[in-house]
Amino acid sequence: MEFTKEQIEIINSTGDIKINAVAGSGKTTTIIAYAKARPASSKVLYLAFNKSVKLEAQKKFTDQGLHNVKVETAHSLAYREIVFRYNYRVKANGYKTHEIVDILGLKNNGDKHAEYVAANHINKFVAYFCNSDKQKVQELNYRDVVFDAEAKAFVSAAYEYIEKNTRLFLAKMDKGEIEITHDFYLKKFQLSNPRLYFDYILFDEGQDASPAMLDIFFKQSATKVIVGDTHQQIYGWRFAVNSLEKANFKTHHLSSSFRFSADIAKLAIDVLNWKNFVAEEQQFFIEGKGSGKETTVKAIIARTNLGLLLKAIEYVTEKKNVKHIYFEGNIHSYTYADEGTSLYDVLNLYNKKPALIRDKLIAQMKNMDELEEYIEKTEDVQLGMMIEIIHEYGNDIPNILKLIKEKHVGNEEKHKAEMIFSTVHRCKGMEYDSIQIVNDFITQEKIEKQTKGTRTDEQINISKLNEEINLLYVAVTRTKNLIHIPETLLPKNALRSAQIQVLRVQPEEEERRAAQSAAKSKSKNQKEPIGYSKEKSVSSEETRDKNKDAYQPWTHALDQELAQMYLQGISLGDMAKHFGRTRGAIGSRIKKLELEYIYR
Q1: What is the pLDDT of residues 160-174, one digit of tens each?
Q2: Are residues 334 and 411 in the same domain?
Q3: Which pTM does this prediction carry?
Q4: C-alpha dist (Å) from residue 526 to 344, 358, 536, 537
Q5: Which residues pair with 257 in a beta bridge?
Q6: Would you state the pLDDT for residue 547?
Q7: Has residue 57 been placed in a domain?
Q8: 423 marked as part of a ligand binding site
Q9: 585 known ligand binder
Q10: How many domains does the chain have?
Q11: What 3-state DSSP class applies to 210?
Q12: How far is it, in rounded angstroms, from Cα 215 to Cα 5?
């Protein structure tokens, strides 16, 4: 193939370099060519982002006859050196909150479920330390990564207790008293100051690097290459950092995308220009050279699990003739929280059926209010999303999920899918002929509203805001040909073209009714309609009696008032009383306005 000028400069470069590569710019092709241009006797290490990328890269390097290139992930390197050497046992899926309570013998101090809230924060503190480049837990301030007012208040009050038990939990893993996590053996690998015997080390997806692995990487004597896209940094919530900003290496660019056309490139630039509302003026350049015409492989991409699941429900209930759909990462990953809590457990709590609840944490809750209080104090986003789904669909959920699962195909039959569903995080690195973007991303209007005035950097979480913009950029750049984007997400003065189809967004009340109507539709294989059950209707009436404004539409003035109260750190309970709505309704509105992503 014929390389671009930028690619040739990278291939012929010497010394440590970093490559800022836009989506679809052929970075893998460039890296393979770079490795091929090194002496055949040299030893090259390619660090892949995850296992699936590792397997794909291994095949590509082997196909090119590059047998001197070893492909690993950070964890596969650490596993070999730490787990085997110390004969550790690995906790494959991490620890659940109730397991940490039992292991550490945490006691309730009188506050409702305090031991479980503390365990949740201990779990996060362990992950924060293990992913950091620090030598000791005491060198970190866990408060720096807690943003919700209720959660921050709890952590501040119990900080010594949380920190002490974090160190105790790490010590138990270190001694082999309990199974170790994946993050732990990577941390122990970093603390061992390993020497990697390679002449060249290629670090891929450098915009989302673990500080622990980055510390190892920087200490090596090999020639170092970092590849990434600053604007695809979307794992800050996992404590990842952008190594392209950390490395003082010569910078190269790959600014031409072979995936999509100039029109899509212009839309991507327009999205990135939103960053100029919160930072110094930046210039963005992407040259779209793609010429795809196919629309065979179609995908719906959402910001959140909630947004995706709601769109999937709407899709399967409206399009009854669709036979096959596919979820990137499997459908089960969207109905279970990281800790293993099932959507059905939360539904059983909602229906006051404790005997049917399997998850030990949810079983501790007397009602939904207690679960919502727990979520406030822990910032457990996934549990929060489950509550929103249940508020929206209630007892229709089992039938709806059954319908979705009946149409879902496995990995080996992905090619049969008439529509692929994915969150942004799960489709990173993927590409599709045609995409539809769900209306749950941040918008220009929200950014302008939140950054207007004299607010300080302490009031606006710039890194989180940039990451939200990155999420939409990643979504937009998954397409090869056609994009369907809600009008609310379209940047002002954005180009309209045949490749950019703008979707009209219904007013909020109409949209809610449309979703309810879709949920009531009959499925092809069901005799009973998918509709709101009598039990849910009764619950709604009770809620309406108790909270007179619970189902009234939100207005712009109310949104502004809510934002001000959130900024002032007023509790969810007090806001619920003030607005005459349920705590769940207030929490849902905060998420919809994305206040938790913008404000500390």
Answers
A1: 999 999 999 999 999
A2: yes
A3: 0.80
A4: 20, 27, 20, 22
A5: 288
A6: 47
A7: yes
A8: no
A9: no
A10: 4
A11: coil
A12: 32
